[in-house]
Amino acid sequence: MTKTVYEPRVKRNYVGAYRPKIDAREKTLGKVRFFQDVTLGGMFPNTIYGGILQSPYANATIVGMDTSDAEALPGVRAVLRYDDPEIRALKLTTHAWTDTAVTPFHRDTIPRFFDRVFLPGSAKHVGDQMGVAVAADSPDIVHEALKLVKIEWDVHPVFLEAEDAVSAKADDLHPGLCEEKNKIKLHGDFQDDVSFETGDIEKAKSEADVTAHTDMVYGGNVSHGTLDFRGLLIKWDSGRIDCWTNHYYTDQTRMYLHEYLDVPINRIRVVNGHCGAHMGKWNMGEDGYYIIMAFLAKRSGRPVYYRMDVHEEFHDTRNLTRFVIDLYAKNDGAITGMEIEGIGTMGGYYGPMEYNVQFIVEESAERIFAPIKNLRVRSKAYFTNRVPGGVMRGIGNLQLCWPLLQAVDIIAEKLGIDPIDVIKKNFGDMWSPYPNESLAAVLDKGAELIGWDRRRKTGEGELIDGRSKRGFGVAVWNQWHAEWQENARGRIEVAFRVNPDLSVTLISPTCETGAGGNSACVFACADNLSFLNITPEDIHWVPVNDSDLGLKDCPPTDSIVSFLMPEAMPECAAKVKDEFKRRGALMLDAEPDELDVDDAKVFVKSDPSRFVTCWSVMMDVDCVPIYAHVVRSNNKTVTGLPCGAWFAEVEVDIETGEIEVKHVVLVNDVGQVMHASGAESQQLGAQELGVGEALTEDLQYDRRTGAILNRNYLDYKMLTAADFPEISPCLMEVWKGAGKYGAAGLAEAALTGTPTAIGNAVHNAIGVRFDSLPITPKKVLDALEKKERQSGKEER
Amino acid sequence: MEKEKICFTVNGEDQVFEIGRDIESDARLSTVLREKLGLTGVRISCEQGACGACTVLLDGKSVLSCMMFAVDADGREVTTIEAFGESDPVASSFIEMAEPGYGTAMQCGFCTPGFVLEAHALLSENASPAKDEIKEALSGHICRCGCYHGIIRAVENAAEKIREVERR
Ligand code: FES
Ligand code: FES
């Protein structure tokens, strides 16, 4: 492993430092409270438990239901059926409701599609939450009651592939919502599925010296796999709703309850605390259970506790996306044109598939392959009976990086040019000068750290112990989320409360999911209040978001909290300083303008010997804390985006087919490192998914029934300490955003290029490309055998 | 005949439970520790023995409390994360981890108590584990945040701290 201590552009006391997380102590000693602890300690007497039927069928409709035995079971408090008039009166909902949408109606940050029915009477995938919900005195009684419900089903054939979705045999899963059966209408007016076209692709094609073609799928077979299962505890009585949850966004959850339950917002309180790493699962569409549990609470007159079980947690996945890509290039490595066809295979519900097959391509054309001028993009997406896909860490970008950067690798190989040079020539964003400085910096640094000069031509790599072939691969992508891109998120609220003893209570409301925005906020607060000699230890970050308290929370997607909230802090600190001057002026018999604050003293600028300590300003008068509050709009100055580069070194055992990832190097230009240890932790930790999805994680379907066979932690293989490869994280500050800090997101980007770099490295080692993940030993052996057969044929 | 009462120590204190009254005979140890004793550092996740979040020490050895009946702890010593403070060499190594190149030893912290206890079990048997032995010992635990590099380094540092104390 190569350790790289980054060079900060601006040396600050706390922001950007290598330091422990602010809550490392509480987390290590088990003192952090998670949602699962909410019922302990008797805070909610008479709590009962809720559960929802999970469909055993992938495509079926309930034609008859008898709930009388369930209702008669002792301990059952409420039963809610799919044909309940109150439930049926609810309008449709969408997968993204409780995620980062700003309001129910405007400025969605992600496309929505209203295809979800609350407690539907028909199932569109195995595990669909539908039919009937129960509240009872214990989880066991809930389970028992659901088993006692007699259901008559009309079961239909299952289809799992996009090709089958439009066949005559396939049911129309969402009648009236699609333009053709099961094919959704994407936003825009397309001819022949062409969603986006620039330049002259036909010319680029006819003048090309060399071409590359990839046809690859990514997604549909991986799980968020997080340990803290989703849930809520909800009370609804006397016209008030109280909801405790591990949802990462209290304000939007409150909006959701308001929208569907018609209760005024000030009578809805949503509280969250810490949430175990979510990996995007709060944007998966099952949030209908908030509404179902609310009704059970209302009907039973009891608080209802619901927490997903392990199977429910496994009924989500990354959007299954197939991209067919054709690159056209000149002999000097300049890529002159690209055709991309994105084909989305949705599950029974939408997930933001439009983002995957359409918007991400258009966005990426601006953000990462802007120098490629002639483009034609086709996009389409189909419903099937798979489990729904949706937002998972790295959404869309991973799926597009995989076929695109392998196509670039093919061009480089055909031309005998180093892939790094081809990338530098053809990548970068549309706003920054060309060639892109950030791109070159991360590539050069990564090449140095991995030892790129050891890379040989494909198949010519070193043979180790007579059986393993070594290979190297590279991928690049843009970092996610600069400040200017976050306008749709809305304003950001932050408050400092300076207490009489000069300790500080920091209200920067967000759910701590491990992304570490809270640490960055505390460090930025300390730096900005340095005139009070404040250290991080003097600051208490409020770890609970309570929508009754009034500040809107900022959901921790990517690592945006780490910089969006700190960007509001200089103004907040200035307000604190002004208040010290105002109070100090009364004690010093001076005007506030004549004063300044430093070293925890308020002093007269022209005569610093006249001062009062900040402590006495607070203590000698009335002990009223100083409260400063800022609502800040993001800086909209467009600054382009920084880049990340991923390098992999692998050894492929040609006898067993096993791939050993020897080393992953990732270099991320983040503009400003907000917390070095936390940022490195994101770089390293993201490889749990990056390497895991490349090599081991794979949900397996029973193709006849549509059931996932390994929907649990035993049979779904995630990496452990024993499997984790050597990883060298490297942070850079080359690009800069518009704000004081000018940082960019890291947490989502940190895995974008890993599977692709591994795919390219495997190809470099053994001369075989794989069109899907994970690359298992069996796939490797099969591919080697096929290759051998083919070369045998050629020789003959 | 089934026992009516069971008794085991938890973090040094005797706990007595009457079967059928205080706890059911098939109650999991994890449920009893959390719900009867309020020890929320014992985390519940897969409840299938696959993730390690619910790890506790039983007579100093690590066990998955979700896979064990509470009655089987009768007469034994149970230790949970709540027994440790920040001066504990293992805990402090996890807390302090911020060495360049290793990130941190936790992100969300959901899995962390399980790793700390597993590390204790390892170090009580092997004061100088090699890196591969540490990896092997921790391989029953999932950290979905992927903090393995920080965790392994923290265990190495903890081993060094313990040896240092013993040398003195
Ligand atoms: S909860 Fe016990 S091993 Fe996962
Ligand atoms: S720190 Fe989040 S699961 Fe390990």
Q: Could you please describe the fold and organization of this structure?
A:
The complex is a heterodimer of chains A (796) and B (168). Chain A has 796 residues and is of the alpha+beta class. Chain A folds into 3 domains: 35-156 and 224-314, Aldehyde Oxidoreductase, domain 3, CATH 3.90.1170.50; 428-483 and 639-795, Aldehyde Oxidoreductase, domain 4; 491-632, Aldehyde oxidase/xanthine dehydrogenase, molybdopterin binding domain (Aldehyde Oxidoreductase, domain 4). Helix content of chain A is 27%, strand content 24%. In chain A, the strands form 9 sheets. An 8-stranded mixed sheet of chain A has the order 3-5-1-14-11-12-13-25, sandwiched between helices. Chain A has a 5-stranded mixed sheet with strand order 9-18-17-16-10. In chain A, strands 20-21-30-31-34 form a 5-stranded mixed sheet. The longest helix of chain A has 20 residues, at 569-588. With 168 residues, chain B is an alpha+beta fold. Chain B folds into 2 domains: 5-82, Ubiquitin-like (UB roll); 84-167, Orthogonal Bundle (DNA polymerase, domain 1). Chain B is globular and about 55 Å long. Chains A and B meet through helix 1, helix 18, helix 19 and strand 34 of A and helix 2, helix 3, helix 4 and helix 5 of B. One FE2/S2 (inorganic) cluster (FES) sits between chains B (106-112, 143-145, 147) and A (227, 276-277, 514).
